[in-house]
Amino acid sequence: MAKVSISGYYRWKLHGKDKQKRDKEAKELITKIFQAKQEKAGIRTIAMILEHKYGIKMNLKKIARIKREYGLITKIRKKNPFNIAFKKGLEHRTAPNLLKQNFKVNQPNKVYSTDISYLFYNKGKRAYLSATKDLATKEIVAFNISKELDLNSTYGNFAKFLKSKNCSGLIIHSDQGWHYTHPYYVNKLKELGVTQSMSRKGNCLDNAPIESFFGHLKDEVDLKSCQTFEELKIKVENYIYYYNNERCQWSLNKMTPAQRRCLLLNSPA
Predict the structure, then answer these.
(1) pLDDT tens column, 76-85
(2) Which of 1, 79, 180, 240 has its CA 20 to 30 A from that of 88?
């Protein structure tokens, strides 16, 4: 009556209940991870957490099927229209676009991506995060959190970091914001032997690596609930430590940025 083959029936009878049991166990674990990530974890993120935290290797198709069957729909981060409008209003450029969206770098401390982002907290109060990302390791190598948007926010802690490095051949990519075109900033980079590269006007994809970091930060951390600047600062600092040392990335062969850096630095030239 059901038009089921004899072999198919006995295969189901032999393995069907086991499969249902395994699916139930997988569903409970995936749901636990999904809810811990505030319903923002995709199948790759779940797969990496399963492997690194629970020692379980699970097929992406299986994770996708279980999410679909149990209605675990991932919340997708939306583009910020304010950022897009802000970047379209930038007017000056002092350096060519050397990267041209080629973000594949295999050697640490050769190409950095940098930008500044607004952080809103306590009913509309605003702080600023200046961050710099190494494109080879995807590690946040320098950052500064401040209440004011000035040159010190852009160059303060970053200057100390650069002075501790060999900047020969280093490229720093940014947008065309005034803090990156300011003569003080430009001349300081030249003194250190750093080459500037800048995005095209109004094209945020030209600086996608650091934009991606800001997106993950705001997506995964509830900054608006912070009541004070100090509370905000602690949350951001903790997240950057987590991002560098604990958050695995699919594009890094499921390694953390810190693990990727160690691998590249210890690899033969």
Answers:
(1) 766 655 555 4
(2) 240
